[in-house]
């Protein structure tokens, strides 16, 4: 879940135009059919399996462990082994194998209806895709993880909360990668609050480092130093060598920007020596290449040449095109400074070729993303066709029986139905006319009646205001008169409310045909400023990009306004609200979910009563 490598950000920034809204569009739930599939396995055994697999970094052994658990039909053991296997492949930069392992683990967890392992697999897939630069897939998997854990009955446990903040951290890193710094800051601060609640030193270190990256990009150097130093403190307390090393890289970057090359070389050197003892060559390359670049700037060409040769050999081994492009660009500068223009030109050409290859890889990622979306749409269409075919066959089997029954009752029923509908229509028309007449007459009467109590109240008020002195009895009498007339006004206002209720029952809806998703998005966007005031992360996640349908805009606006306003009102500072839609059986389902305080059980039976005012709001 760590997002320390800034140069990854620089290469991905040119490779995708993903925005915060696009990152959250792909909300598609898989697996057991409900967000809370069941009670997770025994936590003590899960902890034991985590401890056992975490000590193993041998892919062959982890594969063997997963196969052994599969033969024993031990779903939890298999899912945990596949989770660690995918992480090991990812550390080795074998992203294809990592994705395959985590997808296998996701299928195993879904069959076992183990929510915690489902969420862990989704978060790991999001990290895999993010490291590859396929950011829309990364965002989709992290949002799926958030949706699962929000509806999980055990989300308040330490492990449930941890999966929640990990998903937030992953989504925040997608925003950070695409330079959507405001959204990244909002999401990462919620994740940091969760890590503080859990007391996780490593988690706090990661989030402080990410917030420091945001401040550094905004040019707020002092704040960046502060966040990076906090990250270093927590990494040292947790004994995280990787985190400490990456903090040294951050310090080196800040010194370099300030022109303090000697201090920068010292910080990069610390990172280099720590990473040299680890098998993570990807992060080791960052400090190695940074040292070479600084030695070139300071004219120490011999040292720069040594570090570039080491970096070139490692980058070639792990097949890192991005690092190769940067290494040969530095070779070009080195040889140019030495006057070796032939080698400078050759390395310039190689750097350009690697950059073009990296750009082609980015284009390929976008094409692959489009292909995935198209394939998903095609499968959805095939599924709809199959369901329609099944319904058609079922209808064909019953058509003869239905026809016979209808033939017997049609002649007798049509006359009764016609008479009933005509009578009902006539009664309804008469009722509407009577209600309209009664409402207009009542409104006219009340308008005239309002004048009397208002005149009395104003007269008594002027008398009291103009009197230089007034007896207690006179003041008391004036107060009683004002009170009586005020009660009369209240009664008249209540009658006006009765008119409003009558109108709400008889008004004819104004139906329109239009595109519902865009209209809903406009309503949600209008409430984003209100959510931001409370530091609430609110996102709209439709399953369909477009839905043309008949609707009453006034009704839809009132319903959403009520639901969203209440969700914002009763969600605590730093909370999360998700609005999603799903088209099922030609009906558009709209759901507003939040992690706020909820509705008191006693009030649920009154939820759809008109003009009902609850006596209290749930606080737990």
How would you sum up this structure, described in words?
This protein has 620 residues and is mainly alpha-helical. Among the domains are: 375-506, Orthogonal Bundle (Helix Hairpins), CATH 1.10.287.130; 515-606, Histidine kinase-like ATPase, C-terminal domain (Heat Shock Protein 90), CATH 3.30.565.10. The protein contains 22 helices and five strands. It has helices at 6-13, 20-23, 43-54, 59-71, 75-91, 95-112, 115-132, 135-150, 158-177, 181-198, 201-217, 221-238, 241-257, 261-275, 281-297, 301-318, 321-338, 341-466, 472-506, 516-526, 528-533, 553-569; strands at 512-515, 537-542, 548-551, 576-584, 587-594. The strands form two sheets. It has a three-stranded mixed β-sheet. Strands 1-3 form a two-stranded antiparallel sheet. β4 and β5 (587-594) form a beta hairpin. The chain is extended, with a radius of gyration of 34 Å. 33% of the residues are buried. Mean pLDDT is 79; it is low at 1-40 and 616-620.
Kindly report the spatial arrangement of strands forming the biggest sheet: 2-4-5
Query: What is the level-2 CATH architecture name of the domain at 375-506?
Result: Orthogonal Bundle
Percentage beta strand: 5-15%
How many β-strands, per DSSP? 5
* Through-space gap between termini: 32 Å
Q: What's the story with the biggest beta sheet?
A: 3 strands, mixed
The gist of it:
The chain has 620 residues and is mainly α. The protein is 74% helix and 5% strand. The strands form 2 sheets. A 3-stranded mixed sheet has the order 2-4-5. A two-stranded antiparallel sheet has the order 1-3.
